[in-house]
Amino acid sequence: MELPLLHSSDPVSYTARIVAAKRAIEQLRASPLFRDPYAAVLAGDEVDALLSRWQRVAETRAVPLEQVITKRTRYIAVRTKFMDDLLNSTLTEPEYRQVVILGAGLDTRAYRLAWASGTTLYEVDCPEVLQYKAQVLQDITPTCTYRPVAGDLAAPEAKWATAILEAGYQTTVPTIWLLEGVVMYLPEQAVHLLLQTLCQLSVPGSVLGMDGVKVGSILAGQRARNADRGRVVRHWQFGHDAPKQLLASYGWVAAVSEPQDIQVGGRYPRSLPIGTETPDPDDGRGVWLVNATYLPC
């Protein structure tokens, strides 16, 4: 089955299948950082396409294929585990039974996690992504109350917020929000509107999991686009070097980590570069992950 969103003008939709493929490739490891039995079928032929491309890279550079695979999948693997751990730890508290994944892409948490009884999960993304996922996973039953909601996070009117309210979202209970692999693809104005909207929809104690990139990574992505390379990074638009301060301005108290700080069996050693093959250590590139709580003054 060919995924029509590969040719979409929406870069988040375009990369959804690549991210699913990297999650699927993680499952081939002896000890994957997470379990995702549905990523491969959603990724389709993108798994073989990535492995073939990486095999050529390994041959050109005379390095083992496993080394290339580890490098090209490590961030997605660490990020997925980070967000899984945030969800699982927060859901141990009985007041957290409402989850919203914004820009969900081909996320499979609604199907693969052991959700607490009474949990409702809203997924927001463009209609073609949600329809594709529903078609591929039509024989799989979600392990929570699952409510997909069509919406465009970049739209200036934030109509997605109205859509989740119409789908049953409750503004009176704490929410766990996930913004995984999203904000770097949005214009700066759209990011600020998104954070403002989260404030309007959240009660104190709500939790946010989010990742992003530094400004230097945006500049590197622009260079990749000019050189007609970088299928993913060429679409990046928004970077920020102080995510803790950014979120504080909207009432979120954040703990910020870099992937090297997350102890997951040495999967993200500091000796490996974050961006391209030979980055300048002072070029400002990098990624960050956030676990934040909404505590407005």
The strand order across the widest sheet is 3-2-1-4-5-7-6
Largest beta-sheet characterization: 7 strands, mixed
The structure class reads: alpha/beta
Secondary-structure element order, as H and E?
HHHHEHEHEHEHEHHEE
Unreliable stretches: 1-8, 272-279
Number of helices: 10
% residues in beta strands: 5-15%
Share in helix: 25-40%
> Compute the gyration radius: what is it?
18 Å
- Give the distance, in angstroms, between the N- and C-terminal Cα atoms: 50 Å
Secondary structure: number of strands: 7
Shape: globular
Average pLDDT over all residues:
89
In short:
The chain has 297 residues and is of the alpha/beta class. It has helices spanning 11-26, 39-43, 46-61, 65-90, 109-112, 127-136, 159-166, 188-201, 215-226, 243-248, and strands at residues 98-102, 120-125, 145-150, 176-179, 207-213, 252-257, 287-294.
Q: How would you describe this structure to a colleague?
A:
The chain is of the alpha/beta class. It has helices at 11-26, 39-43, 46-61, 65-90, 109-112, 127-136, 159-166, 188-201, 215-226, 243-248, and strands spanning 98-102, 120-125, 145-150, 176-179, 207-213, 252-257, 287-294. The chain has a 7-stranded mixed beta sheet with strand order 3-2-1-4-5-7-6, with helices on both faces. Strand 1, helix 5 and strand 2 form a beta-alpha-beta unit. Helix 1 (11-26) packs across helix 4 (65-90) and helix 3 (46-61) packs across helix 4. The longest helix is centred in the first third of the chain and has 26 residues, at 65-90. The radius of gyration is 18 Å and the shape is globular. The protein starts with 10 loop residues before the first helix and ends with a strand. Mean pLDDT is 89; it is low at 1-8 and 272-279.
